[in-house]
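(Structure overview)
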Amino acid sequence: MTSFEPLSTLRLVLGESPIWDARRGVIFVCDITAGRVLAIELDGRMVGDWTFGVPVGALSLCDSGRLVVALDRKIILFDPENGGSHTLALVEAEPEGNRLNDGKVGPDNAFWVGSMNPDGRPVAALYRLGTDGRLERRKAGLRVSNGLAWSPDGRRLYHSDSAGCWIETHDFDVLTGAIGPARRLVEQDEAQGRPDGAAMDIEGCYWSAGVSAGRLNRFDADGRLLATFPVPLAAPTMPCFCGPNLETLVLTSHRHLPAERLSTNPLNGAVLIAPAPVAGAPIPRMRGL
């Protein structure tokens, strides 16, 4: 794979949740702790920048072109054309101090989003929000919910816990959104790359950002490590397939690092881009919103 390069001079504090909007020809990303959502073209030109005043954990696309956005403890519908928004759901069952984290629209036409505990205690959860506004908790006992992705046929859900350093898979019912029991696929240590955000390729392989090791790991459907791609920064956070035919990789990163690690590479916090060795699997838009 061609080496990753910075998409622009932009440096985010905690870049996350890149999502490709083929209609607009932009990548939407969020800067979690800065409470920002940005729109960036693949030539690096920034064409949108919105601030929400609270942490922005994740976002995904709707058929209408609007965005489902996970804020600190609520989920909103946001229109980037006019800045309008309204609340879809309040996440009220979370312990004090928790916030929403990684999220993505699944093949069941629902927005799946997990929470995280800043101290890494196992009091976070994974939720499913349907277009009917019903919010359901689907997994509990998590520390930092992350790494949501689905197999190309929609029949398997992949999910990680960044503090637990594991990746699991579940059988998935596309019609109902029901998930089967968890099956542990991968347990990573800090040197191998603690699993953060993820993406799925068209061959059914799972790409996991190794946030503690400056690498991007590609696993097969059964958790075997197929390839490791070093990246030119310390803390990559989430890959996304984008561009024509989903043959380009974009990778976000963060700058929440000790001073000695932060100073070693000026690209920390950058959004990186590279040709992909294999095309990505399309991510659904949420229909009806």
